[in-house]
Design brief:
By secondary structure, this protein is mainly alpha-helical. The protein contains 25 helices and five strands. Strands 2-1-3-5-4 form a five-stranded mixed sheet. The chain is globular, with a radius of gyration of 25 Å. The two termini are about 50 Å apart.
Amino acid sequence: MKIETIKQLWFEKPLVIIVVIAIVLRLIAAIFARGFGMQDDHFLVIEPAQSWAEGGDYSGWLPWSHPGAKPSGHSFFYAGLHFIFFKICGFLGIVNPDIKMFLVRLIHAAWSMITVILGYKIALHYGQKKAAAIAGLMLAGLWFFPWASVRNLVEMACIPFLIWGTWLLSKNDIIKPKHAIYAGLLIGLAFSIRFQTIFFALGSGLALLYSRQWKAALLFGVSYWVSLGIVQGGIDWFVWGRPFAEFMEYVRYNIENANNYFTGEWYNYILLISGDLIPPVSQLIFFGLFARFKRQIIVALPTVLFLAFHSWFPNKQERFIFPIIPFVIIAGVTGWFSFSNNRSWWLNHKKLHKNIWVAFWVINILLLPVVTVMYSKKAKVEAMEYISTYPGIKTIILDGRGGSDAKILPAFYSRQWPNQLELENSYSIDSLSSFMTRSPWSEPGFVMFFANDKMPERLSYLHHTLPNLEFEVVIQPGFVDKFMHWLNPYNANETIVIFRNTKIYPVSLRNANLND
């Protein structure tokens, strides 16, 4: 296709180009962005879903498989959808974890297209075509969006429901009753994925009341609570015998542990979003969010209310703010262009304005290819893939001593569900010996040493309890994982050294395969 044709298409039908760019980037991410982003997007979704599909309950969430189990504060809705998908995979004979996760990423990529398409339409409703095109292009190709869109993050998975509902509330100046009902149902489903979106829903209801859309506000509120009651309430009733058991536990846990995770100042999320959207464009976008606040209150008020709550609440993990970033872009870009197009200073400094945006796209394009194909938590995934060739693993030890930090490994990729004993946290050598005495069948088949440091001392420490350890293989992290660990050692993305217990597995399958 010629450059002139592309330019003309961009001028006449920018959404076509935006959709093509979004599809291509998300397809690339689905193919190459293996692994998982944070602990929660794997261990609170994939692990329980796969174990349920196999008839087990590895995470111990279900009361009928663990009689002492109590609500843990996790919604079963999103993990349950993955359970259904994995059951279908099993029925079709798809057992390879890599293939299953590729399909999961592909489904999430397709799901995220709702955000791109309807986000563009919302921006077009409130702004001019140029502003909508820029907002749409950012939704399609902001440097971390394609990668994040294929992750199992509830903070990303809930966004299409929020966007869809917001589009229904904003597409007409006078909201049709059916649109208010559908919007409530959709935004209610977002709650069943991510509980904190209740503040977004509250903002939507308040925006309708402010706009004097009384009937729409009533229908939206009723349908929202119907959605919550049927989906979240119904699932919890089925599992626990009472509605909203998981939600109430989630509230209790977070109140009691508000200061036990990463905390920060009230302005942390403002700084985070400013960095994500690349300054100085991010400052223009934030200004635009408030510059036309009343005009686009259906988008702006839920966004600001959600941001205000998270800015007030002490626990400030970066992913918590993801659900509103598309809305900041939509309202901010349209608001900014509406403002700047009516200010003589900016009209007289068009070159400066253009250069600011050029700088934004240059930085974004430099970051985009690196992040889009990022294989996150590579060493953890490949360590478990490696031992999947050994049958019947009962227990593995995760050794995080020596300045390292052992994190639970994704058993999903090992195709079995071994006990994982974290040596530096849960078990000392004495307690390990006691555990093995009580349960000799659980003698560890492998020891995973996090970080290749102080190995003689660490091996000596284990020798009396496990005298038959033999070096097996070293699994290296990816480049980005190494960089993230260098930036913040809390990210335990380190080399993993695997030692095999020859008492359990006398022969190295790796060496046997090499000899074959």
